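Exercise 7. Predict the joint structure of the components listed below.
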Amino acid sequence: SYELTQPPSVSVSPGQTASITCSGDKLENKYTCWYQQKPGQSPVLVIYQDSMRPSGIPERFSGSNSGNTATLTISGTQAMDEADYYCQAWDSRTLYVFGTGTKVTVL
Amino acid sequence: QVQLVQSGAEVKKPGASVKVSCKASGYTFTGYYIHWVRQAPGQGLEWMGRINTNSGGTNYAQNFQGRVTMTRDTSISTAYLELSRLRSDDTAVYYCARGYDSRGLDYWGQGTLVTVSS
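Solution:
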Protein backbone atom coordinates (compact mmCIF):
# COMPACT_ATOMS: atom_id res chain seq x y z
CA SER A 1 0.00 0.00 0.00
CA TYR A 2 1.10 3.56 -0.64
CA GLU A 3 2.62 5.48 2.29
CA LEU A 4 3.23 9.15 2.98
CA THR A 5 5.78 10.17 5.61
CA GLN A 6 5.88 13.49 7.46
CA PRO A 7 8.16 14.73 10.25
CA PRO A 8 6.42 14.33 13.63
CA SER A 9 7.03 17.93 14.62
CA VAL A 10 8.18 21.31 13.33
CA SER A 11 8.92 24.35 15.47
CA VAL A 12 8.88 27.92 14.18
CA SER A 13 9.17 31.40 15.66
CA PRO A 14 6.36 33.89 15.07
CA GLY A 15 6.85 35.72 11.78
CA GLN A 16 9.23 33.11 10.40
CA THR A 17 8.67 30.50 7.70
CA ALA A 18 7.62 26.93 8.48
CA SER A 19 8.13 24.16 5.94
CA ILE A 20 6.44 20.78 6.33
CA THR A 21 7.46 17.94 4.05
CA CYS A 22 5.51 14.91 2.87
CA SER A 23 7.43 12.08 1.23
CA GLY A 24 6.13 9.28 -0.96
CA ASP A 25 7.28 7.24 -3.92
CA LYS A 26 6.93 9.25 -7.15
CA LEU A 27 4.65 11.65 -5.28
CA GLU A 28 4.89 14.19 -8.10
CA ASN A 29 2.68 11.87 -10.15
CA LYS A 30 -0.16 12.33 -7.71
CA TYR A 31 -2.13 15.38 -6.63
CA THR A 32 -1.52 16.47 -3.04
CA CYS A 33 -3.65 18.32 -0.52
CA TRP A 34 -2.93 19.65 2.95
CA TYR A 35 -5.21 19.87 5.98
CA GLN A 36 -4.91 21.83 9.20
CA GLN A 37 -6.44 20.37 12.36
CA LYS A 38 -6.63 22.17 15.69
CA PRO A 39 -7.37 20.28 18.92
CA GLY A 40 -10.96 19.11 19.16
CA GLN A 41 -11.84 20.39 15.69
CA SER A 42 -12.46 18.86 12.28
CA PRO A 43 -9.70 19.16 9.68
CA VAL A 44 -9.68 22.16 7.34
CA LEU A 45 -8.45 21.99 3.74
CA VAL A 46 -5.67 24.57 3.22
CA ILE A 47 -4.11 23.42 -0.08
CA TYR A 48 -5.47 21.28 -2.93
CA GLN A 49 -4.06 20.20 -6.32
CA ASP A 50 -0.53 20.69 -4.93
CA SER A 51 -0.62 24.49 -4.72
CA MET A 52 -4.16 25.84 -4.89
CA ARG A 53 -5.68 27.66 -1.93
CA PRO A 54 -9.39 27.28 -1.17
CA SER A 55 -11.40 30.44 -0.69
CA GLY A 56 -10.75 31.97 2.71
CA ILE A 57 -7.32 30.43 3.26
CA PRO A 58 -4.65 33.10 3.88
CA GLU A 59 -1.99 33.72 1.25
CA ARG A 60 0.73 32.79 3.74
CA PHE A 61 -0.12 29.13 3.04
CA SER A 62 1.48 27.73 -0.11
CA GLY A 63 2.27 24.30 -1.48
CA SER A 64 4.51 22.54 -3.98
CA ASN A 65 5.10 19.00 -5.18
CA SER A 66 8.18 17.70 -6.98
CA GLY A 67 9.91 14.36 -7.22
CA ASN A 68 9.14 12.36 -4.10
CA THR A 69 8.31 15.30 -1.85
CA ALA A 70 5.43 17.69 -1.38
CA THR A 71 5.92 20.73 0.83
CA LEU A 72 3.54 22.99 2.72
CA THR A 73 5.05 26.39 3.48
CA ILE A 74 3.64 28.82 6.00
CA SER A 75 5.17 32.27 5.53
CA GLY A 76 5.03 34.79 8.35
CA THR A 77 3.74 32.13 10.73
CA GLN A 78 1.24 33.32 13.32
CA ALA A 79 0.30 31.85 16.68
CA MET A 80 -3.05 30.81 15.22
CA ASP A 81 -1.23 28.50 12.79
CA GLU A 82 -0.21 26.18 15.63
CA ALA A 83 -1.94 22.91 14.73
CA ASP A 84 -1.48 19.45 13.29
CA TYR A 85 -1.01 19.30 9.53
CA TYR A 86 -1.71 16.31 7.30
CA CYS A 87 -0.79 15.79 3.68
CA GLN A 88 -2.98 13.65 1.46
CA ALA A 89 -2.33 12.21 -1.97
CA TRP A 90 -4.79 11.30 -4.68
CA ASP A 91 -4.68 9.54 -7.95
CA SER A 92 -7.29 7.51 -9.80
CA ARG A 93 -5.65 4.21 -8.83
CA THR A 94 -4.55 4.75 -5.22
CA LEU A 95 -7.48 7.04 -4.41
CA TYR A 96 -6.86 8.73 -1.06
CA VAL A 97 -3.97 8.32 1.37
CA PHE A 98 -3.13 10.53 4.35
CA GLY A 99 0.31 11.31 5.66
CA THR A 100 1.43 10.58 9.20
CA GLY A 101 0.86 14.14 10.38
CA THR A 102 3.09 16.96 11.67
CA LYS A 103 2.59 19.01 14.81
CA VAL A 104 3.55 22.63 14.20
CA THR A 105 4.54 24.57 17.30
CA VAL A 106 4.88 28.33 17.20
CA LEU A 107 7.41 29.25 19.89
CA GLN B 1 -23.85 27.45 3.32
CA VAL B 2 -22.51 23.93 3.00
CA GLN B 3 -23.04 21.82 6.11
CA LEU B 4 -22.47 18.18 6.99
CA VAL B 5 -24.17 17.19 10.23
CA GLN B 6 -23.40 13.81 11.73
CA SER B 7 -25.28 11.64 14.19
CA GLY B 8 -24.35 11.49 17.85
CA ALA B 9 -21.82 9.51 19.81
CA GLU B 10 -22.17 5.73 20.09
CA VAL B 11 -20.99 3.12 22.57
CA LYS B 12 -20.81 -0.42 21.26
CA LYS B 13 -19.64 -3.80 22.48
CA PRO B 14 -16.97 -5.77 20.62
CA GLY B 15 -18.46 -7.75 17.76
CA ALA B 16 -21.37 -5.37 17.28
CA SER B 17 -22.03 -3.02 14.35
CA VAL B 18 -22.41 0.74 14.23
CA LYS B 19 -24.13 2.98 11.70
CA VAL B 20 -23.25 6.67 11.49
CA SER B 21 -25.21 9.19 9.43
CA CYS B 22 -24.11 12.37 7.67
CA LYS B 23 -26.79 14.82 6.53
CA ALA B 24 -25.73 17.30 3.85
CA SER B 25 -27.24 20.69 3.13
CA GLY B 26 -26.40 23.85 1.21
CA TYR B 27 -25.34 22.19 -2.03
CA THR B 28 -26.47 19.58 -4.59
CA PHE B 29 -25.93 16.33 -2.69
CA THR B 30 -25.39 14.20 -5.79
CA GLY B 31 -22.73 16.51 -7.18
CA TYR B 32 -19.95 15.35 -4.84
CA TYR B 33 -18.63 12.16 -3.30
CA ILE B 34 -18.98 11.66 0.45
CA HIS B 35 -15.84 10.29 2.08
CA TRP B 36 -15.39 8.75 5.51
CA VAL B 37 -12.24 9.34 7.54
CA ARG B 38 -11.51 8.17 11.06
CA GLN B 39 -9.11 9.30 13.77
CA ALA B 40 -8.25 7.12 16.75
CA PRO B 41 -7.47 8.96 20.01
CA GLY B 42 -4.17 10.84 19.67
CA GLN B 43 -3.58 9.37 16.21
CA GLY B 44 -3.64 10.57 12.62
CA LEU B 45 -6.29 10.59 9.92
CA GLU B 46 -7.20 7.35 8.16
CA TRP B 47 -9.21 7.29 4.92
CA MET B 48 -11.89 4.60 4.99
CA GLY B 49 -13.56 5.01 1.63
CA ARG B 50 -16.02 7.01 -0.41
CA ILE B 51 -19.44 6.78 -1.99
CA ASN B 52 -20.53 8.27 -5.29
CA THR B 53 -23.74 9.88 -4.08
CA ASN B 54 -25.12 9.92 -7.62
CA SER B 55 -24.63 6.28 -8.62
CA GLY B 56 -24.19 4.72 -5.18
CA GLY B 57 -20.87 3.19 -6.25
CA THR B 58 -18.30 2.74 -3.51
CA ASN B 59 -14.54 2.47 -3.06
CA TYR B 60 -13.23 1.11 0.23
CA ALA B 61 -9.73 1.25 1.67
CA GLN B 62 -8.13 -2.17 1.82
CA ASN B 63 -7.98 -2.09 5.63
CA PHE B 64 -11.76 -2.04 5.85
CA GLN B 65 -12.78 -4.33 3.00
CA GLY B 66 -15.40 -6.79 4.20
CA ARG B 67 -16.31 -4.83 7.33
CA VAL B 68 -17.49 -1.49 5.97
CA THR B 69 -20.60 -0.52 4.03
CA MET B 70 -21.31 2.97 2.72
CA THR B 71 -24.77 3.87 1.51
CA ARG B 72 -26.78 6.98 0.80
CA ASP B 73 -30.38 8.17 0.61
CA THR B 74 -30.62 10.92 -1.98
CA SER B 75 -34.19 11.78 -0.97
CA ILE B 76 -32.91 13.15 2.35
CA SER B 77 -29.34 14.07 1.28
CA THR B 78 -27.85 11.70 3.81
CA ALA B 79 -24.91 9.32 3.65
CA TYR B 80 -24.30 6.41 6.00
CA LEU B 81 -21.28 4.49 7.26
CA GLU B 82 -21.76 1.06 8.75
CA LEU B 83 -18.85 -0.77 10.36
CA SER B 84 -19.33 -4.34 11.52
CA ARG B 85 -17.48 -6.78 13.80
CA LEU B 86 -16.25 -3.91 15.92
CA ARG B 87 -13.02 -4.23 17.90
CA SER B 88 -11.58 -2.05 20.64
CA ASP B 89 -9.17 -0.50 18.15
CA ASP B 90 -12.13 0.81 16.15
CA THR B 91 -12.64 3.37 18.92
CA ALA B 92 -12.24 6.65 17.08
CA VAL B 93 -13.86 9.82 15.83
CA TYR B 94 -15.47 9.15 12.47
CA TYR B 95 -15.78 12.06 10.05
CA CYS B 96 -17.70 12.44 6.84
CA ALA B 97 -16.37 14.90 4.29
CA ARG B 98 -17.34 16.19 0.87
CA GLY B 99 -14.85 15.64 -1.88
CA TYR B 100 -14.19 15.43 -5.56
CA ASP B 101 -10.99 13.68 -6.62
CA SER B 102 -7.98 16.00 -6.78
CA ARG B 103 -9.82 18.91 -5.18
CA GLY B 104 -9.54 17.33 -1.75
CA LEU B 105 -12.06 17.19 1.08
CA ASP B 106 -13.40 20.70 1.33
CA TYR B 107 -16.16 20.40 3.93
CA TRP B 108 -16.18 18.11 6.96
CA GLY B 109 -18.77 16.99 9.44
CA GLN B 110 -18.31 17.62 13.14
CA GLY B 111 -17.25 14.04 13.80
CA THR B 112 -18.92 11.15 15.63
CA LEU B 113 -17.16 9.42 18.52
CA VAL B 114 -17.60 5.67 18.44
CA THR B 115 -16.39 3.88 21.56
CA VAL B 116 -16.01 0.11 21.51
CA SER B 117 -15.83 -1.34 24.97
CA SER B 118 -17.03 -4.41 26.79
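Discussion. Chain A has a mean pLDDT of 96.
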